[in-house]
Amino acid sequence: MVDNNTPNFGFCDQVGNNLSELGKWKVWQNIILGQFLSIILCAINTLAHYLNSGSSDVLPTGQSFPHYMFLCAIYTSWLAFRRGDKGLISIIRARGWRYLLLCIIDVEANTLMSTAHQFTTLTSIQLLGCVAIPVALALSCLVLGVRYRMVHILAVSVCLIGVGCLVWANIEDTKIDGKNQLVGDMLCLGGAVLFAIVTVLQELSIKNTDIVEYLGLLGLFGSIVSGLQMLLLEKQTLVSSTWKNSSALLSSFSACQFMFCTFSSVFLLNMGTTALHLSLLSGNFYTLIVGILLFNYKFHALYFLSYTLSMTGVYIYSIKRTSTRPMGNILNLNPDRNHHHVFQNELNNRHPHPESQLHEHIIVDSPERMNEILSAFGTINSNDTFPLSHSTNTTFTSFYGSHDILSHQTTSA
Predict the structure, then answer these.
(1) How would you class 271 by CB atoms within 10 Å of its CB: exposed for 0-12, middle for 13-18, buried for 19 or more?
(2) Do the beta carbons of residue 275 and residue 267 sit within 8 Å?
(3) 125, 188 Cβ separation under 8 angstroms
(4) Which cellular compartments is it found in (predicted)?
(5) Is residue 284 packed enough to be buried (19+ CB in 10 Å), middle (13-18) or exposed (0-12)?
(6) 146 — phi, psi (to 5°)?
(7) Rounded distance between C-alpha atoms, residue 360 and residue 381, angstroms
(8) Which of 5-9, 201-205, 286-290 has the lowest mean pLDDT?
(9) What pLDDT, on the 0 to 100 scale, is given for residue 211?
(10) What is the pTM of this model?
(11) Which of 230, 242, 324, 339 is within CB 3.0–4.6 Å of 62 for a Cys-Cys bond?
(12) Helices (DSSP H) in 177-246: which residue ranges?
């Protein structure tokens, strides 16, 4: 039977409710922060272009080394003063190798993007960086379990149309040899893919731990990895470099990298990876303006159209927050032990039989898989917890977890 008292919201009502979200200051805070990051990224690319194309003393890895040292000096020192499970030594023992892997990807992404500036134009680097968007979309679904609504798909489509306007503008630069430009474009594509991977893992880290832990371990391991790679690959250039004319550029470049890494962590915590990459699209317009002023790029009316579409897509995306699919056993890295025992006792009262408790909280693909797990566990006592290897989550949800703790807080029917 249809309830006549149930309100029926039409399409116009839904649009009105969504647009009302733009009146909230918190939404505009995230939009403004995204544009601030876009301007910083424009400055990073411009400074990197000067550092790598206008001098013979090129250090693609070495120019990012001060940035990691700044992170280490501030955030790693912060971690060193922590005590208990949130302390530096405890974190390194629990999941240090995971951060080491992330830092290797981050260092190589920066190196590839810096090297690309030696072979291709600043505009090509900005455009090819858009490849990070589909990679970030796919990884957000697979790794983070993000569910996109129709409004988010519409926002991404509008932004990509804006990218198409830039491509249609057909910016040409005849100063660079075609073969070398192809090498630069390939390096840029590789760097963009790695950058998308880093941002997804960065979001995964800060949402499961905290920003200080991520930045502290990034600074520590990033300094080690970039320092070793610089000594192995760029030692001769490092020794012969004078840096008289580029010390100010290098300092500004490192400061911009530090700010981008710090504020992007805050943005990812609030909005997510896809929103970050969409916000950075406006950096294409800012870079083109810089190119017109500094590198004699030609102006095209489609630049304004591209910028308008990109910002419109950002506004649309900000209307609705993305949701995540239920993940089952989500890891809390700092569980409240007392709360965990209370929760276990409550489960035992509701489900006195171990087998029924196991059926309640393990999701499997088939009855045969359930029988296999039941036979593997045998009889489970009330104080036992389920090993993480039997969780039906994706592998990535435990990327920053510890295999000896489990704190899934479930709402039983």
Answers:
(1) buried
(2) yes
(3) yes
(4) Membrane
(5) buried
(6) -75, 135
(7) 15
(8) 5-9
(9) 94
(10) 0.72
(11) 230
(12) 178-208, 211-233, 235-240
For residue range 23-66, what is the model confidence (pLDDT) as tens digits?
A: 676 778 888 999 999 999 999 988 988 888 766 677 888 889 99
Q: How far are the Cα atoms of 65, 190, 207, 268, 269 from residue 265, in angstroms, in the given order?
A: 19, 22, 10, 5, 6
Which tokens sit at 107?
């260092």
Mean pLDDT of 401-413: 40
Tokens found for residue 164: 């198409």
Provide mean pLDDT across the span 168-197: 75
| Chain position carrying tokens 């029926």 | 8
Token pair of 238 as six digits: 């490092």
250-293 residue pLDDT tens: 899 999 999 999 999 999 998 889 899 999 988 888 888 888 88
Residue 102 has pLDDT above 50, yes or no: yes
- SS (HEC) of 370-394: HHHHHHHHCCCCCCCCCCHHHCCCC
Mean pLDDT of the chain, nearest integer: 75
Please tell me the distance from the alpha carbon of residue 259 to that of residue 171, in angstroms, as a whole number.
30
- The pLDDT assigned to 61 comes to 87
Q: Which two tokens stand for residue 60?
A: 């693609």
State how far the Cα of 317 lies from the Cα of 148, in Å rounded to an integer: 10
E strands present in 321-382: 323-324
Which amino acid, 191? G
Residue type present at position 371: N
Measured between alpha carbons, how far apart are the two ends of the chain, in Å?
A: 25
Residue bearing the bigger pLDDT, 395 or 87? 87
The owner of tokens 């006549």 is 4
Give how far Cα 313 sits from Cα of 129, 144, 279, 318, Å: 17, 22, 9, 9
The pLDDT tens digits of the residues spanning 298-346 come to 777 788 888 888 888 888 887 777 776 654 433 344 444 444 443 444 4
Amino acid making up residue 365: D
Q: What's the CA gap between 148 and 151, in Å, rounded?
A: 8
Which pair of structure tokens corresponds to residue 403?
């295999």
Q: Indicate the DSSP class of residue 62.
A: G
Contact yes or no for 146/272 (Cβ under 8 A) = yes
The single-letter DSSP state of residue 147 is E
Q: Which amino acid is at 186?
A: M
The first and second tokens of residue 317, run together, are: 């995306």
